[in-house]
Amino acid sequence: MSSLRNFRLDDLMMEIRRRQICESKPALNIILIGPPGSGKGTQAPIIKDDLCLCHLATGDMLRDAVTAGTELGKQAKAIMDRGDLVSDEIVIGLIDDAMKQPECERGILLDGFPRTSVQAQKLDEMLNSKQKSIDRVLEFKVNDDILIERIEGRRIHPASGRSYHTKFNPPKVDGIDDITGESLIQRKDDNAEVLIKRMGAYHGLTAPILDYYRQKNILKTIDAMAEISQVGQQIHESIYNKII
Q: What sequence ranges are listed for the domain Adenylate kinase active site lid (predicted)?
């Protein structure tokens, strides 16, 4: 959660009220799993605000750590400069550090990690050391042939991570973020060629990790081809069922 000093008076009162409401809701650690274009970027801010969780997108965390020049950021930069993949230990270290911040005290919403069952096991080990665990894993399921249209129409607000789509979820003003009025961007890798490669890797790695969480009885599958509001309702039911 951001500092209350960043809000105007009217917005401050609304934010305080929102946080009071959050206190009546379950504190959870949630993972979002799904291919590019499955809708995670649209739903993540809604889940984050509803439960007052800390949204941790590991790709963004790595870039921020490198820019800030933190110890883990320096290690990651050296590895990436060599063209190698950043180790699981570094990524989990970033998540560990983030969880120590006040804004993450109610729980985390993980997007982009873990990607393999080995990473899932290492994440569990770190959480267990804190007497914590993953409470829900939401699989965003979409047919491959739907994804290209979704990906090529995706637009992102870089500062917040808010996601739009030129057809399915357009901003109020074309190319402009609804909240800040700042420009939206299309990521360089949001195209069919890159998507096909990423989908091959996703399918190759996803089955084992879904099985891992299915065995723990915390995996919920979301029909992400439904309307946005219907996807949101499925997520709400998946989060709250058997909790409240």
A: 154-189
> How far apart (Å, rounded) are the C-alpha atoms in residues 81 and 96?
24
Judge contact between 11 and 3, C-beta under 8 A. no
Domains by residue range for the chain, with CATH: 27-142+206-240 (3.40.50.300)
Catalytic: 136?
no
Catalytic option among 136, 150, 154, 155: 154
Dist. CA 120–CA 130, nearest whole Å: 16
Determine contact, residues 30/108, Cβ cutoff 8 Å.
yes
**Residue 155 among the catalytic residues:** no
pLDDT digits (tens, 9 = 90+) for 59-103: 888 888 888 888 988 998 888 888 777 899 999 999 999 999 888
17 is annotated as an active-site residue = no
* Residue 187 falls in the annotated catalytic set: yes
Q: Is 198 a catalytic residue?
A: yes
**Backbone phi and psi for residue 176, each to the nearest 5 degrees, phi listed first:** -125, 135
Q: Tokens 């439904």 belong to which residue?
A: 226
What does the DSSP 8-state code read for residue 139? E
Question: Which two tokens mark 57?
Answer: 């997108």
